[in-house]
Amino acid sequence: MARVHPGSDPLAHVLTTPLFMNRDALGFVRRFQEERRSEICFDSAGYYVQVGKIGYHELYMKLLNCYRTNRWADRYVLPDYVPLSSDTDEQVAE
Questions:
Q1: 3-class DSSP state of 65
Q2: How does residue 4 score in pLDDT terms, banded at 50, 70 and 90?
Q3: Which of 2, 39, 41, 94 makes an SS bond possible with 75, Cβ 3.0 to 4.6 Å?
Q4: Which CB contacts under 8 angstroms, 24+ apart, belong to 61-67?
Q5: What are phi and psi of 56, to 5 degrees?
């Protein structure tokens, strides 16, 4: 079993998906950055497109608004447009 070494910070780097968090949880992540100097990376939530919970274009617009509103993160991940098994050959080629 691996152990955390004294002095290491398991929350030094935080990957989070702001689109699917409530405001309180996102504020908690923000405090990690302010108080602990954690590096915050916003994930795009592209997984939710892959499993059919949201469409790519809807995700993109929500993500754009979220990233514009929350300019405090250190990194921002953009979504991939991953073909789905239900896509036509033409959609996959596009």
A1: helix
A2: low
A3: 41
A4: 62/19, 63/19, 66/18, 66/19, 66/42, 67/42
A5: -60, -45
